[in-house]
Amino acid sequence: MKELLLLKRIDFVAQLLAIAIPTLLAITTKNDEMFFVIYFSLGGVQVLSCLINKAGLDKEYRDGARTGYEIALLIITVLGLIALFDAYNPSYRGGNFAMMYLFVMLLAGFIMGMLYLIISANEMIFIAKLVKRHELIK
């Protein structure tokens, strides 16, 4: 169980680094557009983390909100694919749905990122308590 706690801590720190590194780059280079890199760096780390946790994390250690997050992520992915086809459909002058999707994702991406960070923190805290309890029993 200590190994699981170590992996959850690495997962959490990776998410914090995905926020901190682009933020520091934006500040040091004085390039405000670098703040948008956070969407992609944090999103990439969190989607990878979500897939790994879906495959390898036992249900007893999963936070209750994780299933809702996974469903929301699936819906966002499907809507993103629809927006992609809308934007590149040569048969008509589309793109309205794609623009609306991108606009909504500015807010939804931030909310999903913070929600997953909270889910990861809750799981890490829960596993840490289990490890501590297990050590006390020994």
Question: Explain this structure to me?
Answer:
- The chain is mostly helical.
- Helix content is 82%, strand content 0%.
- The protein has 4 helices and no strands.
- It has helices at 2-29, 37-56, 65-87, 96-137.
- The longest helix is centred in the C-terminal third of the chain and has 42 residues, at 96-137.
- The model has no long low-confidence stretch (mean pLDDT 90).
Keywords:
mainly alpha, 138 residues
Low-confidence stretches: none
Q: Note the run of SSEs as H and E.
A: HHHH
Which geometry do the CA atoms define? Answer: flat
pLDDT average, as an integer? 90
Rg over alpha carbons: 18 Å
Secondary structure: number of strands? 0
Rounded to the nearest angstrom, the distance between the terminal CA atoms is 14 Å
Outline of this structure?
The chain has about 140 residues and is mainly α.
Q: How do the helices and strands line up, and which of them pair or pack?
A:
Layout: H1 2-29, H2 37-56, H3 65-87, H4 96-137
